[in-house]
Amino acid sequence: MKRVDDFRLKLGDRDYVPIMIGGMGVDISTSELALEAARLGGIGHISDAMVHDVSDRKFDTTFVKDKTRTYKFNINNLNKAVVQFDMDRLAEATINHVRSTMEAKRGDGLVFVNCMEKLTMNAPRETLRTRLSAALDGGIDGITLSAGLHLGSFGLIADHPRFRDAKLGIIVSSARALQLFLRKNARLDRLPDYVIVEGPLAGGHLGFGMDWAEYDLHTIMDEVHAFLRAEQLAIPVVAAGGIFTGTDAVGFLEQGAGGVQVATRFTITHECGLPVDVKQEYLKATEDDIIVNGISPTGYPMRMLRNTPAIGSGIRPGCESYGYLLDANGNCAYIDAYNREVLAHPDQKTVVVMDKTCLCTHMRNFNCWTCGHYTYRLKDTTHRKADGTYQLLSAEHVFKDYQFSVGNQIALPPREEQA
Length: 419
Ligand SMILES: Cc1cc2nc3c(=O)[nH]c(=O)nc-3n(C[C@H](O)[C@H](O)[C@H](O)COP(=O)(O)O)c2cc1C
Hints:
Elements: E1 9-11, E2 14-16, E3 19-21, H1 31-39, E4 43-47, H2 51-59, H3 63-71, H4 87-103, E5 110-116, H5 124-137, E6 142-146, H6 153-156, E7 167-172, H7 175-185, E8 194-198, E9 204-205, H8 217-230, E10 237-240, H9 246-254, E11 259-262, H10 276-284, E12 290-293, E13 302-305, E14 312-314, H11 333-344, E15 351-353, H12 359-364, H13 395-404
Parallel strand pairs: 3-11, 4-5, 5-6, 6-7, 7-8, 8-10, 10-11
Antiparallel strand pairs: 1-2, 9-13, 12-13, 14-15
Helix pairs in contact: 2-4, 4-5, 7-8
């Protein structure tokens, strides 16, 4: 019976344990989590989502406070076009986060950064170019472009000295999206080093419509493999979304995947950035508690826990402090939804906004509990303690369970109470 450790993910002239821990913003996939994956010979991701805030928390910088002060005058203005990011500060925050992570790296694995392109930041091209260049300057091993994949992104950093040496990958949810990306980038003579195919059971935003349940990751993987074979391209393909056991992973590796990307099982590890009480919410969840809805202003469906505090919250848009989802014209779907409710209820002090949420503020405060489809199975991966709470795991335990388990088994950790 094969196990994940019988396979290797080959990138360039090196190979790795074929397990990637996926990027989870905002700082849910912390440096500590990513570094564990690298130490164990696999690949971890940090995320550059809301990187100013991440830097402020980790390094006592004051990027968010300073931006809030600069744009305070605009807080009651519906038009947010004036709220711009300073490129030098964006680069500085990114380098702080990336460099400190890379300096702490041990072992044979790699650390990548997950860059969600839907963070359009009121100036999509300039901010993305700055984020990508700064991550390369900070010494990141690789960049995974995700959520809202912009077909011209590689071109933004084509003149960077590390453009050909760093690993560059993309996340797609269909062979068609991959085809479009490759066609658009053909003139750069620079293929992605890996392609992550994210199926409909993943956490975070989904690359599908509300008909996500009609898709199946194995089928999409077959389509992607067939497309690459037809094009005679040998790009490693990494399967992601709903891979819950080592045996699930082996199923994809035997189908031809170069590796797997997993995330949900790591949300209840000590190294994961979610607050401890939120980890317990993930552990308590039942299948009925996992929902997919349209409240993200990005326009993509998003999976989350039913009792997510962000749902229905009518807080004032936080764009003067954050503004990561503002499009090129300073718009965000939450601003419209919020203003509609304020106009409809002029006498109310607080409003309820059901159809959209202020994703920046709520992700920043860990109040948008996005999660993978199989979150309801997390309770089966650990022990329930005498006080009714669940024991958290180490990232090493979960990583090794994926790497070495067979027969759909999940290794439970040693009981803390006995340890
Ligand atoms: C809590 C959480 C947050 C996530 N955030 C992001 C993100 O910021 N960017 C991204 O590209 N994918 C994100 N994802 C998707 C994961 O990186 C990964 O591809 C996917 O969840 C793998 O499926 P699994 O969770 O079933 O293992 C997130 C997933 C979870 C569970």
